[in-house]
Amino acid sequence: MRINNNLMAINTHRQLGITNTASSKSMEKLSSGFRINRAGDDAAGLAISEKMRGQIRGLTQASRNAQDTISLIQTAEGALTESHAILQRMRELAVQAANDTNTDSDRKELQNEVKQLISELDRIGNTTEFNTKKLLDGSAKGVKEAVDGSMRINNNSALTLDVSATALATIKESTLVDGAYMIIKVDHNTGTGGTAEFAATNYKVIGPDGKEATHITVASDSIKLTAAILGTGNTATISFNASATLSENMKVGESITFVFSAAEEASDALDDSIMAQIGANAGQTAFISMGDMRAAALGVDEIDISSKFGAQVAIETVNNALEKVSTQRSALGAMQNRLEHTIKNLDTSAENLQASESRIRDVDMAKEMMEFTKQNILQQAAQAMLAQANQAPQGVLQLLR
Q1: Which of 9, 257, 266, 345 could form a disulfide with 198 if both were Cys (CB 3.0 to 4.6 A apart)?
Q2: pLDDT for 328-379, tens place per residue?
Q3: How far, CA to CA in Å, does 251 sit from each of 62, 150, 155, 312, 387?
Q4: Distance CA 9, CA 31 (A)
């Protein structure tokens, strides 16, 4: 018998330490509700669940973003509702002034009301805002179309268009409302080997019948790029020289018109539109364009119903303005309906992802309670056996008596 080293006590103490550690981990899991409290509990599970947590929080915030965007749209739509009412009243006054039962003095009084209504249209356009962001003053309209020029076809002539550094691909596109759209392409650049900035440009050809020509061929074999296109706001030196030939049935003396979009920088064009982040990841966005809804942009700033002929013109002018406002309201309504579905989808996705994350990270309370009970019993048994093992060396004293 040996008394310097009590191997039974040492072994029992080691087992008691293991049991105490396991019992402590079980208590931690039961008190926190998580199966994974540190990377050592499940390294792979922790990495997966953290990614899921990021997505869940992103989806939740995206849902709030969509709700805020709906509030913005409702603010703009509410203002446009009143603009509609003002235009309807202006049309009513124009119809009244067109009737010859009114004298010039009567029409003058009607014109005074029209002037006040025009001022109110401007006030609504200038002051309607959401979180200090102007909505209807034209600052969120994106890019406007502009006519570049026209050419006349002569007898036995062929028309060839030489274009340098034209657009190769569309990056983003949103709803067109009164000339407001978001087509991002490379800006036109004269000369080979120049530096071209990304810009919002596009072109089309309108034939003599007023319809857009569609028979355009491009010599694709002459397209060469000498530098990579990096992204919005960057520049790249490119070598590009392609000819586009228009094949359209035309008569001698007829003209065609070339329509180009405004050459604005893409970053500015994006800033002009309202971007809604409606997803948890980069690029999951929606763009909202709002045209200028002030009197001048609607074409009603110079309406004059002081004469019956002016009233006739005013009726048609107000009709056009009503159509513009209706188009803008329809676009906003469509976007609002889209965002409502987006919110439902985001909430459902977040809920499903939360369930998946819970299965990985959350603890099964019943199962862990069973484990804790087992470790608790083993702990008590180890303590009792350690006491017994410590008593064993005392038997040596019997030999010394």
Answers
A1: 266
A2: 999 999 999 999 999 999 999 999 999 999 999 999 999 999 999 999 999 9
A3: 56, 15, 8, 37, 113
A4: 32
Q: What angle do CA 352, 356, 357 make, to 5 degrees?
A: 115
Does the global pTM surpass 0.70? no
**Domain boundaries defined on the chain:** 7-33+363-400, 142-272
Residue 339: CB atoms within 10 A of its CB come to 23
Q: How far apart are CA 87 and CA 293, in angstroms?
A: 11
Partners of 149 in the beta sheet?
258
Across-strand partners of 258? 149, 205
Closest among 98, 102, 101, 79 to 90, alpha carbons compared: 98
Residue 332: which of 83, 109, 163, 119 has the closest Cα? 83
Q: How many other CB atoms are found less than 10 A from the CB of residue 26?
A: 20
Q: CA 141, CA 392: separation in Å to the nearest integer? A: 91
